[in-house]
UniProtKB/TrEMBL annotation:
Family, per entry: Belongs to the CbiM family.
Membrane topology: Multi-pass membrane protein
Protein known as: Cobalt transport protein CbiM
Protein's pathway: Cofactor biosynthesis; adenosylcobalamin biosynthesis
UniProt keyword list: Cell membrane, Cobalamin biosynthesis, Cobalt, Cobalt transport, Ion transport, Membrane, Transmembrane, Transmembrane helix, Transport
Top-rank taxon, per record: Bacteria
Organism: Anabaena subtropica FACHB-260
InterPro entries found in the cross-reference section: CbiM, CbiM/NikMN
């Protein structure tokens, strides 16, 4: 069963990687906030805010991989899922774009701190290889997608589980609402950097958030449904890993009567 789950995980990672290669030639609109778009002081500010989470995330990933080396493949799958989903872009607010984030799954599996590193690495590779986003705006993009989104997903998942006990509903809401929060944070970042001449921050935030909502609400719903489908796949092919993470219970072993 362990070999079967590893083989299935490798196949899924391969499918996601193939999709990324095929879609890499699509025109780039700059993921989240594009390179050089933020004023220098705001770019530096978001770097300073994001860095402590990244450092704590490295420590969290180190603990996870040292305690359970067999989870490395599942970590890679969570990263690939985020990479591919966040590469699906629709041009939106000037200097930005709308797309799924894919961070909810990793946050549920490994926690928000681990996802802050995986998400930041995804943003870094996309900035360097696909010209989506940028290095100066990496701190801002990481805070919205790799930090705020995963923390929201983690808290929402555990809150819904505690209130209802419905795991698939919790996964759907965690992934969808984390996606929406990512773009609320992005709208705040843009409004802080570019307040409106009339109405200031509030007017600017209302404009940015309103434009994002047109594309982001259906994308968030789609991401929630897709995350539930991937979860079902993991339950079928990687139950040992989910049991190890205490996300599903071990099935009681039947004993033959003597």
């Amino acid at each position: 069963m362990i070999l079967k789950s590893k083989r299935a995980s490798i196949i899924l990672i391969g499918i996601l990687s193939f999709y990324l290669i095929v879609s890499a030639s699509a025109p780039a609109y700059g993921m989240h906030i594009m390179e050089g778009y933020l004023p220098a002081e705001w770019a530096a500010f978001w770097w300073l805010v994001a860095l402590p989470f990244m450092i704590l995330g490295v420590r969290s990933l180190t603990r996870i991989t040292k305690a359970n080396p067999e989870l490395k493949l599942l970590l890679a799958l969570a990263g690939a899922f985020t990479f591919v989903l966040s590469a699906l872009k629709l041009p939106s607010v000037t200097g930005s774009s709308s797309h799924p984030t894919g961070t909810g799954l990793g946050a549920i599996l490994f926690g928000p701190l681990a996802m802050s590193v995986l998400g930041s690495l995804v943003l870094l590779f996309q900035a360097l290889l696909l010209a989506h986003g940028g290095l100066t705006t990496l701190g801002a993009n990481a805070f919205s997608m790799a930090i705020a989104g995963p923390f929201a997903a983690y808290w929402i998942y555990h809150l819904i589980i505690k209130l209802t006990g419905k795991q698939r509903i919790a996964i759907f809401l965690a992934a969808a609402l984390a996606n929406l929060l990512t773009y609320i944070i992005t709208s705040i970042q843009l409004a802080l950097a570019f307040p409106a001449s009339v109405g200031g921050f509030i007017a600017s935030f209302t404009k940015f958030a309103g434009i994002f909502a047109i594309t982001q609400i259906p994308l968030a719903i789609s991401e929630g449904l897709l995350t539930v489908l991937v979860w079902n796949w993991l339950q079928s092919y990687s139950p040992q890993e989910l049991q190890l993470l205490k996300l599903i219970q071990r099935e009681p072993q039947s004993h033959e009567s003597i």
